[in-house]
Sequence to fold (132 residues):
Amino acid sequence: MLDLAALSALTPEERLVRYQELRALIAPLEAEKDALNALIKADLQGGLTVQSAGLRAVLKTSHSTVYPLESFVEQFGADQALAVATIDAKKVQNLIKTKVLHAGEVKEVAVTVPRSTALVIELVDKGEGRAA
Fold:
């Protein structure tokens, strides 16, 4: 059971060490889980029923709604299509690679916005970061 008080009592350095210990323990389990997931999906896609006492595996497909540009423009007009359009960054990068767009000009209009913040643990030399 999670003891938040005990974790809160740890020093920041102890938290970091414990975090890395847990990450090292979990990583192989995650890899095994991912491999089993792929194998079970393949079984189901191959027509097998995958079931054990109290458990059954099924495939569920999630869907997203897309609006084809041509149909949207035809129905609502170019102004409305432009009002709701987004620029696909990967497609922009491909246009730069194929020299359809100039990287410098694209950079002038680019805006970088934070998407998410992730905790990144980096290995450091033993002497690095310590006061001399």
